[in-house]
Design goal:
heterodimer; A: alpha+beta; Glutaredoxin; globular; B: globular; UPF0718_permease (chain B)
């Protein structure tokens, strides 16, 4: 599973990355993490608000910092299919 | 409405801390407890309401509203400035927002009306102004922020400054994904709103408390009218000075408003204080640095100058109206 956080590296983006890592760890999901800071790449996902969460190239949400529990739900769903 | 809070503050001051009633210390402590609780209650309520309204709006939706309907350009400016209040906005998002809007064919000036309104009408500032000075000042604040955003946007639009946008902005291909709005139940909206409100208050509470603390200190030790000479009505440059002073102070926005009532007692006029606060929230250095990535220095300077002038004019206007 490839998990990406899109954002310019502000505190919110870091927090989201932290939460995503924790969520994957708690679910024992093998995942690689990437911070996407390049504005062209961010725009290529059609995102206008950062931070955004992308799992396996699918945009999950943008513009907010989700909690660990919520991300766990998302990862379970994405891993299950 | 805040009678129970007053009772609680009295109880703490006189029964728990056993500070004799009528002393200077007791009135300061009592004032500090009462004010802190009152401000946080109002701040929580107002941020919660605004955040809840915001769950119904997204920049993606705003972009669609502004780009699809071919409306009168002035109506577009007004719409953009209004949407600027209600769309969630983190200053980190300024760059992707800007590119997204320009790519969608929204005129540069309209984009600026939006970009100016969003930080200018700030929910924390609004909450604190209401808590400290009541509804009238809060409404004036929103109104003048909107006017500045609309007029500045129109001016930037008229100046045809597209060539001062970094070239790569026009080359970026924005994925043509029809953004799927998350389906949200009322319960989810509420819990999201609550989460965001708590996060925001966690972020600003220290500034608010420090602000109230400094206010309490000034209250006890600095005589009334001490700043009247340098920042009062009679100094024609006070507003300009306050605006310039506010630019590098972004992170302290939440701490400044609890101070404003003290400023007033010390002789600073209301318009000067409001200019200071608007400059703190709308012309922040960190945001300028972010915007530099999409705007050439010239346009950035024009943007800052127009918004700065707007804030200064508002300050003078308030000094005329409110004094």
């Amino acid at each position: 599973m490839v998990i990406k956080v899109l954002g310019g590296g502000c505190a919110n983006c870091k927090k989201l990355m932290e939460n995503a890592k924790k969520a994957a760890e708690e679910l024992e999901i093998q995942a690689s993490f990437e911070e996407v800071k390049d504005i062209e790449k961010i725009m290529s996902y059609g995102v206008m608000r950062t931070p955004a969460l992308v799992v396996d190239e699918k945009l999950i949400f943008s513009g907010r910092v989700a909690g660990v529990e919520e991300i766990k739900e998302v990862l379970k769903k994405e891993a299950g299919k | 409405m805040f009678l129970p809070v007053q009772k609680f503050a009295d109880f703490l001051t006189y029964s728990i801390f056993k500070i004799p009633q009528g002393s200077k210390l007791s009135s300061a402590v009592n004032f500090f407890i009462f004010d802190t609780i009152k401000i946080f209650i109002l701040l929580f309520v107002i941020v919660f309401i605004i955040t809840f309204i915001r769950t119904f709006f997204s920049p993606e939706k705003t972009r669609d509203i502004l780009s699809h309907r071919k409306q009168n350009i002035y109506i577009a400016h007004i719409l953009a400035a209004l949407l600027g209040i209600v769309t969630p906005f983190c200053s980190c998002s300024a760059v992707p927002l800007f590119i997204g809007f320009v790519e969608a064919g929204i005129p540069l000036g309209v984009t600026f009306s939006y970009l100016i309104a969003a930080p200018m009408v700030n929910e924390v500032a609004l909450g604190l102004l209401y808590a400290n000075f009541g509804l009238k000042i809060a409404i004036i604040y929103v109104f003048s922020g909107e006017i500045i955003a609309i007029v500045s946007g129109i001016l930037i639009g008229k100046l045809n400054l597209e060539r001062y946008v970094e070239d790569y902005v026009f080359k970026i291909k924005v994925a043509n994904v029809q953004y799927q709005e998350e389906k949200k139940t009322l319960k989810k909206r509420m819990s999201e709103t609550l989460e965001f409100t708590v996060q925001l208050i966690k972020k600003v509470w220290i500034f608010v408390v420090v602000g109230i603390g400094i206010g309490a200190f000034l209250h006890g030790y600095i005589p009334t009218g001490a700043l009247a000479k340098i920042a009062g009505k009679n100094n024609p440059f006070a507003v300009i000075f306050a605006t310039v002073l506010g630019i590098p102070l972004y992170s302290n926005a939440a701490g400044i408003i609890p101070l404003v009532s003290e400023f007033k007692r010390l002789g600073v006029s209301m318009g000067t204080s409001l200019s200071f606060m608007m400059s703190v929230t709308a012309l922040s250095l960190p945001e300028m640095i972010l915007l530099r990535r999409v705007l050439k220095p010239r346009l950035l300077a024009i943007f800052a100058a127009i918004v700065g002038c707007g804030i200064i004019i508002t300050g003078y206007l308030f000094n005329l109206i409110l004094e």
